[in-house]
Amino acid sequence: MALWNKITYSQRLFMWLFGYSVLLVGCFVCFQYHREKMFKTGELNVQLQLINHYILDDLAGGDDALHISKSLLHPFDELRVSVIDTSGNVVYDNTLDTIPHASHLSREEIALALKTGSGYTVRRHSESTGKTYFYSATRGNGGYVVRSAVPYTVSLIELLRADFGFLWIMGGVTFVMCTLGFFVTRRLGQHILRLNRFAERAERGERIYDTEPFPRDELGSISNHIVRLYASLQQANADRDREHRAALHEQREKERIKKQLTNNINHELKTPVASIQLCVETLLAHNNLSEEKRDDFLRRCLADTGRLRSLLNDVSLITRMDDAPSSVMREPIDLAAIIAEVVDDCGPVAAGKGMEIVNGVTGPLLITGNASLLASVFRNLIDNAIAYSGGDRISIMPLLSGCCFDGDDKIVLSVSDNGCGVPQEHLPRLFERFYRIDKGRSRTAGGTGLGLSIVKNAVLLHGGSISVENRPGGGLFFTIVLSR
């Protein structure tokens, strides 16, 4: 049983088919062999019956049995003729010198002849002669039974032997059937084997791809449909799980950013609130302060209040972009006009610090987006360059040889300055919220630490990207790509 289980399904199926074919052909061959042998036996009996009738006719005409047996014409080399009366006694036998006295009524061929008129025995040994004969007996009208017999010589055995050519033909038919059965079972076995491998891999939870085609038939088509259906279901589950993980990661990232933002806001609020509280407490505690000192404390309160307002505005803007980007209204706008407006607004401040703003973007430059967010992108970049670069020139230019569009119909612009730049290790973190290179200097300049983070989020919200690098000659070089 263990050995049987080790055999593949196609081999077991072939063995069953082979056994069935051999059994079917074997039964047919045995049946046909028996029929052919019976046919040849019947032919021999017919020939002997004709001889018996001839002898009976001559005996009825008064001829002597000895004379008749010697004058018979027959195709046999040796023919034994016997005459038996109704009592079963042999009255004549042409092969014996002494007539046996034993009754022959129990002989099969004699009993059948007395009962039905004729009978034969295929093979029986004679006690009188010591030979084996084929007996054929016929009953006459006078009650006598004439029995002729042919000894089993080589010629008689060959005569009664079935034609073995038929066996060779049936053997060839069996071989052809088994050969065809081998190919059929092997093809079916391939289906079963592949389906079994598929079921085992599916049970183990392995990833299954539609890469192993089945043979092109009805069963193969069904198998291919099953595998493709399972692969599609598996892919759908994988996509669902991946989207779930991405959504979960995004949710956790939002929570982390919110937590970080809350902590940073708390930290950023401490300084201006503490400064305002100190100024107010000083003013209340010292009524005799000079006007100059009183004005100084009030100016500090005003500056810290403005810083708080800017911080709250920036936090409100960046929170809105994080939590509800779909609520940001978009409409067709001219980006070139927005850039020109920002340059005009920032021009006086830049000129007051000895800086020049060069705008190389010419319009119209149509884009679908939010005008206030795109304006904040360029305003924050210019304000940062004015406050921290230390250069004397700020440039806004098309990046691709004077053209604002690349091959994918995207707008590509650059914002750069010729200042001092930043150390290389700070560049990867420049767009992080509340990240400052020089914290003391940034707070003195009134920055909230959210400007570049707002720039990046606004660009991403418009389906674009932004990157920064140090210029070889000094200063920062921002590359902005926006989708139209």
UniProtKB/TrEMBL annotation:
Among SMART domains, the record links this protein to: HATPase_c, HisKA
Show the stretches that span the lipid bilayer. 13-31, 164-184
- Pfam name, any one: HisKA
Q: Does the keyword Amino-acid biosynthesis apply?
A: no
Entry's EC annotation:
2.7.13.3
Question: Which residue intervals define the domain Histidine kinase in the entry?
Answer: 264-484
Q: Which residues form a coiled coil?
A: none
Highest taxon of the lineage: Bacteria
Keywords tagged on the record: Kinase, Membrane, Phosphoprotein, Transferase, Transmembrane, Transmembrane helix, Two-component regulatory system
Query: Its catalytic activity?
Result: ATP + protein L-histidine = ADP + protein N-phospho-L-histidine
InterPro entries, sorted: BphY/WalK/GraS-like, HATPase_C_sf, HATPase_dom, His_kinase_dom, HisK_dim/P_dom, HisK_dim/P_sf, Sig_transdc_His_kin-like_C
The entry's protein name is histidine kinase
Picking any one GO molecular function of the record gives: kinase activity
Organism annotation: Xylanibacter rodentium
